[in-house]
Amino acid sequence: DGDGHGGYNKAGFIGGGFVNYAFRPNQKLEMQILYMQKGAKVSPDTQKGDYTDYSLNANYIEIPVLYLYDWKKFTFKIGLMPDIYIGRTEESNGTDLTENPAYDMRPVSLSAYAGISYNITEHIAISGIFTYSLLSIRKNTLPDNVYFLFEHGAYSNAISFGLNYTF
Hints:
The structure is a single chain. With 167 residues, the protein is an all-beta fold. It is built from no helices and 11 strands. It has strands at residues 14-24, 27-42, 54-62, 65-71, 74-92, 95-96, 108-119, 124-133, 146-148, 151-153, 157-165. Strands 1, 2, 3, 4, 5, 6, 7, 8 and 11 form a 9-stranded antiparallel β-sheet that branches. A hairpin with a 2-residue loop joins β4 (65-71) and β5.
């Protein structure tokens, strides 16, 4: 949010590992470490007179700290996730914005995390996750930025789907 483009139209890779501790029979604390690709993609739609061509490919190390609640074959997850920015490529209408200081990313941000997993077997699950940054991901404000919680800025939100294996 805050980039002037809407929708979930950029696929990216997510992978990593986790450890958890069961402090009650159906409740756990979990910490993950993930590599996550985030971004945005807008292609021109000349039939509608829109010639915008924009691409952002951002790479992060994510460290979710989560509370898990097991119910039947489902696991509900909620928590906070520090986002550590490790690099990006960004281009708008043929202009490389990657080295432009006005578009610099914050080195660390913080996101809210909510997810649900369906346990197919004792070791295999499928999951859906929604994350939304609580702090702006950019150092500077830009014209299309929005105001959310604490500040005016650009915010990352992502929907992820995964296949999980527990040892």
